[in-house]
Amino acid sequence: MPEGDTIHRSARTLERALAGRRLQRFEVRGPAAARASRPKTGTAITQVEARGKHLLIHFDDGIVLHTHMGMHGAWHLYRHGERWRRPGTQARVIIETDNGTVAVCFAAPTVETARATHGLRNVRDLGPDLCRDEPDIDEALRRAGRLDPRTEIAVVLLDQRVAAGIGNVYKSEACFACGVDPFTPLAAIEIETLRSLFVTAARMLRANLTTTRRATVDGGLAVYGRSGRRCRRCSNVVMSRRQGEQHRMTYWCPSCQSRRVRTAADATTTATTTRDATAPSQPAVAPASTTVDAASAGRPTRSPRRA
Known about the structure:
N-terminal domain of MutM-like DNA repair proteins; 4-stranded antiparallel sheet; 21% strand; Helicase, Ruva Protein, domain 3; elongated; 23% helix; alpha+beta
């Protein structure tokens, strides 16, 4: 599935080609065709933008076209009469402008139109877009705090209602960079570690906005797609496993990501200490802690709805 950096690159390319041009043709095919509102011939395209993994095309009559690429969707640009590189049966949206530019959206599972973006629920509910400058990390933390505390941290990072733009690649890479086992439950993650995960993912996404050759470390990616190969940092073997209800693949290094994290016992100890602050002093007891074993990492937890 394309991640936020890919969709932002697509939006910039479409913006350069379409913004300010007037429609000569607007066609929606497939299941969305019957219910899609259509801008009229001569309507101007005012803006193309990305919000996380969602691409929006705005028209001057107030209509907004929303597409989500899923696993196999893509936007292509052609000149009028040019042969398409994918079969016409896969076309979901066709836009032709007054200068002969043709934009075709292929195989997108989500195609819808609305009058302004507030009518698009999946877009309206998105968390801060980590591909944008200075995303609101505090808001992402607040949203994460509303989730089931048993949710595994890699599943949290994929939840587009918490923060938009992260996919499988940056989920795995951010966890590696921060030394966090991706199967750790949210309740066991310190708030500053959670902040570091979002900040790191945002930095990685923005660093790859202008290239199609993703890199998060020297040489490419640290763990994503490298199952069975040697870790670039410690030379241990990188592992992979499907995670969550959607069975998304997660990659991690069991040596580099055996970070000590807060346990439920820690949280209980902290709460008890706070409640008993005025009680007679007792012998100090060090709070319990543990290291999550990546090789026997926790059970799959409930995955977020894709947004």
